Each structure stands twice: as C-alpha cells, then as structure tokens.
Amino acid sequence: MLRRCGTPTDVERGVRNREERIVAPARDEMENFVTGQRLTFIRTTTETGGELLEMESHYRPQGRPPVLHYHPAQQERFEVLRGTLRVSLDGQERDLSAGEVLKIEPGTAHEMWNPGTEWAVVNWQVRPALNTERFLRTAFGLAQDGKVNTLGMPGLLQTAVLLRAHDAEFRLARPPRPVQRLLLGVLAPVGRLVGHRAAYARYAPVLPRPPG
User: Fold this and answer.
1) β strands within 8-89, DSSP E
2) Which fold has domain 2-130?
C-alpha cells in the first residue's frame, strides 16, 4: 500500500521536528557497518507495552539490501523522511521518495536499500513489537563487534540460533519453509552447544514477554 502524505515542505518540517524531540542514549543508536544501515530506537517495546516498535533507520547510499525475508504475524510501516528507498516487494521493485508511506502486510517477502547518492532516512514501525527489538539489537550488536561476514550477516551457526529463536518475528523467504525448519533444527542446537545465543546482555536488554 503506497500513498503520498504531504508536500516536501511538510516532510522536511516533520524531519526537523522528529530530530528535535529525539534525545536517545548512545546505546539506542546502532549501526551495521557492512550493510550501511543505522538504527535509532524511538519507541521501544517496553515503552509501548508491546504494541509497536518505532525506529528511525538511516540507509547508506548504495548500501547492501538485507536478505529477502518476511514477518509471519507483524505489519511494518515505512515513511520516507529524506532521500530515496528502493523496495523489492514480492519480486517487484519500486522507489519511494520523501513523503511516501509503504505498509507491508504479514507474510509478504521484501527487502529494501538505498539506490541513491544521498543518505535515506525512514521512520520504521513494527506492529506488534513481539521480540523484534531483541532480534535487531542482537544482530546489530554482533555487526558492531565485527562478528559478521562480508554480507553483514553473522556466521552460519549464530544465524541459525537467531532465526530459530525469533521464528515468530523473522523468516527467510528461501529456501522453502520445510527445508529451513529441517536445517535450523540441526544447526541451532549445535550453535548453542558451542556458545552462540539468541540474545546477549551487552546488546539487548531483558524485555518483557510479548502478550499472547
């Protein structure tokens, strides 16, 4: 679902207002130096009682897209505040510019990146929050510590542990689901056995269990 919301002047004013009200501690700003994506947590899972997770995401020009994925039970809302965001949605690409909003429904495979020459800034909301915050803090924390490969992803066993623990929030679009379940069922226990975890205290705070 794509719609235009306001003139560029309105959008620019919204960006300035948002920047003025965000005073986040250092721990609430995380960056994956390989993919070129930077996150600022605006409203956390705890602050909203699990209703939503709101972030501001900065995409580096010509940065790497994340792996093609989907969320089985969550809706995402992206509002471009500055720059251009290219989105692949169920195999079809589109470009979003400042003032445009994209809602991605549960189960829709997608990936996004910045194809332009300037930084892209996006307001990103996830409903309900579930354990997405823990997943993102862990993934970005590993990246900041240099524990990712040239694609910005953790190693195979660490990724398996993360994916199995966050199956309700994040799933790969391929290989087919039965193959993934089989592989994760084998690899994740091995990963935990050698010391990998789904969350680490130095990256992710202890969050309340999501309702339900």
Assistant:
1) 29-32, 37-43, 53-59, 69-70, 75-82, 84-89
2) Jelly Rolls (2.60.120)
